[in-house]
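Batch manifest, entry 17 of 40.
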Amino acid sequence: QYIGYATVRLENVDVDIDLTTQVEFQMQETSLELGETVTVVAERELVTKDLTASTAKVDADQIQALPITEINEALQLQAGYLDGHVRGGRQGEIAYWIDGVPVTDSYDGGQVVEINKDMVEELQFVSGAFNAEYGQAMSGIVNITTREPREKFGGSFTTYFGDYFSTNEFDRDQYYEDVVAGNRSPRLGSDEVWMNVQNFDPSRIRNFEGSIFGTIVANKLSYFINSRYIYFGGWQYGQRVYNPRNIAYIDSANNFIQFRDTQGQGDGEYVPMNWNRKLYFQGKLTYYISPLVKLNYNFIRDDVEFEEYDRVYKLNPDGNLTRNRTGYTHLLKLTHTLNNKTYYDLGLSYFDKTYSQSVYENMFDPKYVHPRLNEEFEAFSFRTGGNNNQFFMRNTKTYLVKLDLAGQVTRTHLIKTGVEFRYNSLYFDDITLRPLEGDNLDLRRDSPFMTPEVFPVGTIYHDQYKHNPLELSFYIQDKMEFEDIIVNAGIRVDHFRPDGVILSDPTDPDIYLPLNPENRYKDLNGNGLQDPGEPFVTFAERQRYWYEDASNKTQISPRLGASFPITATGVIHFSYGHFFQIPNFELLYRNPQFKLDISGGSGNLGVIGNANMDPQQTISGEIGLQQQLSETVVADVTMFFRDIRDLAGTRAEEIQLISGETYSRLANSDFGFVKGFIISVKNRYSTGINYTVDYTFQIAKGTASDPEQARNALAGGALPEVRLTPLSWDQRHTLNGSLGYNQKTWGINFIGQLGSGQPYTPRQTSDVATIRENSQTKPFYWNVDMRVYKDFNFFSRRWSVFLRVFNLFDTLNEVNVYNDTGRAGFTTDLERNRELNPAQNINTIDEWYLNITHYSEPRRIEFGMMFDF
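Output type: structure tokens
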């Protein structure tokens, strides 16, 4: 408002995380009737002039239109993101933030909770050199803003149902001819690969979710509540031919007895083996203490029960592990605007995540059977009975305090600084249930059930620990916005107290079963033998000298980014930074009692963790150009590199025991280098035709794809090469795209993905002394998904019906392959082992070599409806 001019209202102004939004008002001298207002709807600028690092944004409207059901599916569409790997980095190198507070599980680098997609207002994915405010991440930042409560009462309800449906046919002879001829994409169908996906049953996928929002106290206190239940039936099935209690054996006349008694026989039902069930709840409160003080409280809980396919239990599916992941978080954030140039945020949060896996909820359940039933009955056969005897649970709690102060100290300088403190509490308990001492099962007459025994922590059947690592960080950054250049410069300092121990003498790691004589007894006369009267060294005495405390770690991370507007519609940006991340806690504290099983023979006995590892480091840089091509289209070209150092690995020297065996200890021994470029073209999301296309070329090489890769090579009798080889997720060419046509009440949208083959290591036949790691590639991958919707009004409410089809063309991509042929469905081992004439009492050898985990999921169809009120 201004005297002499008409009032102007500008609506729908988008303010993005960490970015400046410039708002301009075009005012007219008043010639309107008194009280009239000119209302203008803002349009998002296609080129973000102060963007100094590659950042992708997906808002609520786009998420709603895309054929996706989970927020991670939206991430899969972003350039540089591939199955949790960002620009060639390992999994676990991403930091997740919700409403300005980090919510990453420090144990494995995953999410504490997974936000329901319908609660997301904005998803921001930063894959470039992010600002100093963000820490404990080397690859990228996923920053989620959840929906704000609203003054007006309302809500929505959504439900959908679905199932997998695949009808492809497969000609095995033709497939073989295609492979011999070198055809990289022969037809392969569901009739030979999948169980139980030819009959469509919409109850196998069912989802119910609803939201309500409104005001408790007008202009003061408002709320937003969302809840969801989903059961996902999966596509990897087993068949209940056997029950876990079944006993199969060879009798005295050399006859195969498939069922010792009828109780061991299954009902023959098809059983999903990669299902999951999720319960989700989120409640958000916003309280305006005053016009300048805002308080947000956010509570999120998700409870997921699920199963992961284990093919050895294909005919005995009830013996497989059931897994549970429960996470909840409390987020409290106070925003206080001190004046029109300065504000601060105070964030308090508490996260709790529990993961467990077992066959039965109670470790002393009488249905547990003797471990002999879990042994492989004959070569190339699935289990005829038994159950997984692991009982595992871990819990991570994190208490976090975060204070940020931002001030526009001058017209060109925005200074932001902050401190963060995290207190972590970790509990880990891994038990292998064993029968009572002396319980040797006689297959012909004894009961299959056992009385489970939990062995002490000092044995190889039980691992347990509690740790309380601390993290403290400080950062300061300056955003300088001049006429011709915008600069983000900052520095971050992180301090870590690991709360762990390392071995004083690595050559004798197991305090419970020491090997070196001086650790077993006191050799008083120095003859090297334990003579009568020479006492044992007690466990309490060994505890006093066995371990040393791991040292605290501090690192400094400089960050720099710049943006140069070259025209009114074009910007060049540059960013560079050092990024550190403490190795995930599962690596620091692995095998916490440093126990090794020396009864199993010679060679490398395994891997122990190392709480004294240094932070892992990445040096990242990029340069890019954003250019608006028309009023609705913008293009982006970015070149990037990543120099990765001090990754956790086992490439360091093996440690030898006095008995001659060796073991490996995790250390900062791996490194890598990634380079590439991204080209993307996007148009403004609106009614009519919408599209996005991005192409990524990337070369990701390193010394190891997995921290234990070098140790596994040594255990297999080979010598790992110390050189850069393609990483297992090195997908050289990736093309993502979306295409949609949307009108006011209906629309159709597609998303497509095309990727070149990822590497695999071919089988060695001549030189077993070296590994040609990842020297061949799998077949390429492609997929298309679709969503169609129609809106209509009914009882003055908006209703919408929709249809989603994932893997529209029922493509059977070969995601894993046999290492002798490079194909998912063909191996020379089949014919070679068939010539050995193995017993095939349980399943054929052809069925054994048909591995459904080698293929991507078949076509999935979902249909549903939603309405707003």
